[in-house]
Design a protein that fits this description.
Layout: H1 2-22, H2 28-44, H3 47-63, H4 67-80, H5 86-101, H6 105-117, H7 125-138, H8 142-155, H9 162-170
Helix pairs in contact: 1-2, 1-3, 2-3, 3-4, 3-5, 4-5, 5-6, 6-7, 7-8, 8-9
Amino acid sequence: HNREQAEVRLANSLAAFDRLEAGGFSDPAELERVLGDLESVADDAGKDAAGVARLYRGSALYQLERYDEAEQELKSVIDRADETGTLFATAHSMLANVYQATGRTDEAVQVLDSLLDAPDTRVPADQTLLQIGQIYSEAGRDEEARENWQRVVDEYPNGSAANEARQLLKS
């Protein structure tokens, strides 16, 4: 019964998060409220729902610029998630964003490289390489950015990221 209630609370929390996201996260107080709801759900829910709640908590903490807490929450998701699942991959991508936001470019790239090396991951490698390139670009490391975008074009010419990589290489 508690798990069913936790699932309903999770659905409500995710809907509130989505509304906040659509509004550009302009209401930090409401985001703090959702953060608390997600913590409560993570404690009460089954493994999968708890993982989703923690992932969204990590995202909310990132939006609130509470990067240390976001890092811990996302690492917790990675440690508990199935390595072939979407939660595992999404948490890696978000953790890379946290590292990028705190100027830790090499750690951001390392997190994404580990995702590329993970067996049976469901994340498209072309999207991961594109993200690595964007991280390097934002850090002013243009040569490394271009190398990753070129890999997307060379290794995944028909992939979803190839057109974007081609545009970035032209700029």
